[in-house]
Write a structure and sequence with these properties.
- This protein is mainly alpha-helical.
- The protein is built from 11 helices and 2 strands.
- The protein is flat, with a radius of gyration of 20 Å.
Length: 291
């Protein structure tokens, strides 16, 4: 029996729960004063509610619980599944705190990455991982209308950290090398999909270390800020980074079943895009606001 209906149900349920919980958390945060105030490097003109990460994670958890209950209550044949790949990519990253520097950026890129990871898991028959990724994707998309510019609800540091680590954990559990893989290069899939946040975070860390500034002190040296410095609006900068993440990831989804030559071409494309991103960060000057 196809698992597709279960994926659709999980996705819709996660979106509905996330939208409802995001609205509820926003009202609660506004009423209790749990908000991010304007000032300093912040660009908002008025206080913005915090706690959006709680809504995303709660929607994800409730969707997973609902799916678990459905499995336990529904009679079915629980025959053992076949082994899935001998090598799992050991990547667990949380660059989403650094990436959470513009409305909708961190949650949106996490959603794009979740969709790409889910596509590979579904194609390879990894039902459990695919279901979890679909639930996470729906939870993020349900939250994004509240978070996209102009944001009415922020993830918060804890929310961004938790979502990054949840996504990182799921990449550890997913297998990328299959019986059809001609090489071991599919283990690079998570690194390619998460190239935008990884490059942005690496550049930020190196820049702050070189300038002897604390890592936790934010600046306007991120890729999103540099795109805005070149004349893009904040909306446009965020969408450009969504599309860059998609460009990195779409061809990488071919890696599990690609030939050696095809895998080399995918990696060459990823390296070329990464080089362009690094060059962009180097050429476009950082524009920090006055103290």
């Amino acid at each position: 029996m196809s698992a597709a209906p279960a994926y659709y149900v999980a996705f819709v349920l996660a979106v509905v729960l996330s939208r409802a919980l995001s609205a509820a958390v926003r009202r609660w945060a506004t009423r209790t004063g749990f908000v991010d105030h304007p000032g300093g490097r912040k660009v908002q003109d008025s206080p913005v509610a915090l706690g959006g990460g709680l809504a995303v994670l709660a929607a994800f958890a409730l969707t997973v619980l609902a799916g678990t209950a459905a499995i336990l209550l529904a009679p079915r044949d629980l025959s053992p599944s076949s082994p899935l790949g001998s090598i799992t990519a050991r990547v667990e990253v949380s660059p989403f705190n650094f990436l959470d520097n513009m409305d909708g950026l961190s949650a949106g890129i996490a959603a794009v990455a979740s969709a790409l990871f889910a596509a590979v898991a579904i194609a390879e028959g990894q039902i459990l991982i695919a279901g979890l990724l679909v639930a996470l994707l729906g939870s993020l998309l349900g939250f994004l209308p509240q978070n996209f510019f102009p944001a009415r609800l922020y993830l918060g540091d804890a929310g961004a950290f938790a979502i990054g680590n949840l996504l990182g954990t799921l990449t550890v559990l997913e297998s990328y090398v299959t019986r059809d893989s001609a090489t071991l290069l599919p283990v690079c899939f998570p690194l390619i999909v998460l190239a935008v946040p990884l490059i942005d975070t690496s550049i930020a860390v190196v820049s702050r270390f070189r300038e002897r500034r604390p890592l936790h002190v934010a600046d306007h040296g991120h890729l999103s800020h540099r795109l805005v410095a070149r004349g893009l609006s904040r909306r446009q900068a965020v969408v450009v980074l969504y599309l860059l993440t998609l460009c990195f990831g779409l061809s990488a989804t071919l890696l599990p079943g690609a030939s050696a030559m095809q895998s080399a071409l995918v990696l060459a494309q990823a390296v070329a895009l990464a080089t362009l991103l690094v060059a962009l960060l180097a050429v476009i000057p950082r524009r920090d606001p006055p103290p």
